[in-house]
Amino acid sequence: MTGRLGKVVSDITITADGYVAGPNQSEARPFGDDGGDGWGDQLHGWMFDNPAEHQAEIDQLGSAGAFIMGRNMFGPVRDEWDRPWNGWWGDNPPFHAPVFVLTHHARNPQPMEGGTTYHFVTDGIESALTQARAAAGDNDVLIQGGAETINQYLTAGLLDELRLHIVPLTLGSGSRLFDGVPPLKLEQVKSRATSSVIHVSYRVLPSS
């Protein structure tokens, strides 16, 4: 007997003006000019500065049965795609589940320590979601980002839930959530304010 069908969820930190990364992203500064060191300390400090205050939200991040991410979130675009490069996340990535990477460059699956295996999907967001659902079983599929990837899933009407962690910071430019996305109908499921971030969850309602 099978359980419930898992949801398709996006979970991402954004600034008060909607950016998930600043301008001038590079291999040395994956979050661009974010007002900090470029490694997301201004955006994602809430996860590390006082993790006990945000444990429920951190636990949600690790509860998915499979993940989907864009090519840039896996790692920077390199001219020599075939040379060894396992992405930003090190030898033991935090996912511990299958990760489906959207890309235009075919590559064999890359198993990592801790149970993570990267699968490189070249035939679009719907194919990636089909594969991720099969891998996740009854568990949720988490669309990791970045903004362009989440915006594609929102535009296609493929997201069930949107979890935002809103930090008290503005960037003014960079990679922005909702850019190019048609108007959405959202139902607030829950919200919680902490000392450094507001956690908000929305159910994405059908547009018609």
From TrEMBL:
GO biological process, one term: riboflavin biosynthetic process
Pfam families: RibD_C
Range of residues in the leader sequence: none
Protein name stated in the entry: Riboflavin biosynthesis protein RibD
InterPro entries in UniProt: DHFR-like_dom_sf (IPR024072), RibDG_C (IPR002734), Riboflavin_Biosynth_HTPR (IPR050765)
Every Bacterial bifunctional deaminase-reductase C-terminal domain range: 7-199
Coiled-coil parts of chain: none
Entry GO MF terms: 5-amino-6-(5-phosphoribosylamino)uracil reductase activity
